[in-house]
Write a structure and sequence with these properties.
3-stranded antiparallel β-sheet; disordered N terminus; mainly alpha; globular
Length: 454
Amino acid sequence: MANSGVFEGDSGMVAKATELKNELQKIVKAIVDEDDINVDAIDKTQQILGALKELKLKKPISLEVDDTVEVPEEFKCPISKELMRDPVIISTGQTYDRPFIETRLNAGNRLCPKTQHVISHTFLTPNNLIREMITSWCKNHGIKLPDCVQHSNYDGLTKADRDHFITLLENMSKNLSAQRDAAKELRELTRSVPSFRALFGEYPNAIPQLLFPFSQKPSSEILSSLQEDIITTLLNISIHDDNKKLVAEEPMVFPLLVDALRTGTTATMGNGAAALFSLSALDSNKERIGKSGALKPLIDLLDDGHPEVIKDAASAIFNLCINRENKVRAVRDGAVRVILKKIVRRILVDELLSILAMLSSIQKAVEEMGELEAVPCLLCIIRESACDRSKENCIAILHTICFSDPTKWKEIRNEESTYRTISQLAQSGTSRAKRKAGVILERLNRAVNLTHTA
């Protein structure tokens, strides 16, 4: 086993280092596997490497408060009466030093020491504001305060949390009032507590229990707020990589998400689309989602959905159309018409051009683009857009259309004669855009030469 250096013997730092390394491994694998270079992913790797370096260099230091220095009351833990190292907020809204409140919770004490109210769940939320205030105060008084990373419980869950999780799932099969309360709390916990997302992978029946209300009634008869909370919880747990396969393999999930796209509130529709986007990160899930019939309602949502949700729909469609069979399905379900309509209106142009470029590998899609007068729209975007990626997608689509339909060359020739759009792109575009523009210019020049020879 490799020596863990300064992490050895410090379980909190070991856990954090392991978490960072696992995330780094996933991102590096994604960068290596992708044909294109993902700049955001590279930036993320640099951030993670920096965090690992910071952990490696971090030295254990002790809290040293001079007896003559009076510590502000708001900086003291109500339990220990000492300056807080790692202030956290419990469910009652009170702030305590993590080690001291954890000790009470692990002992089964579920009463808030200050308010004496029952603590509904035992997840501890870092109080970053108080932490920053304490850090600033310590610097002003020459006091060394250890970073909270040395004291944090990175799992964040106690036995009481797990018991509470099981109780919430059991309540999903009780009366409507219990279902509503449990669904709302599960939504909030899985939103704010990553460890609760992971719990769904630890309990085999957790997802069926979450979806129990839908096994009793069709979606149309489920209370809209309950549907929204459950669909949003599905989104939250699907963010956890280890859950993506698990969620997709539950037979009820995709039919429920499709129903959510069609019948849900605006928030439910958006979160349903976002859940499909998250789940489609796995190639095996792309195929499952395509076969579930989800593309048609996603395209409908893109067509006339609320402005707040069409971006979620576009993201899901893009991910799904990496799969060739889903490209065919998307074209069959009217994606080309809807996408071009949005692009003409200058809605999500950059995102939708990326989808259109993918669909241009399907002959039926290319034919539709020609029929729907896509050429002048694409040429106009090349002239007007400041986005190199959009220009690249436009010229790639134009290349495919024109070599598929010779009647479109006249429009290209007129554009080049009037604006020299293609020539300018051949000089200043991305490497791929220059290459595609060069092929089009070569074809135009050859046609001119043939005309002169004749």
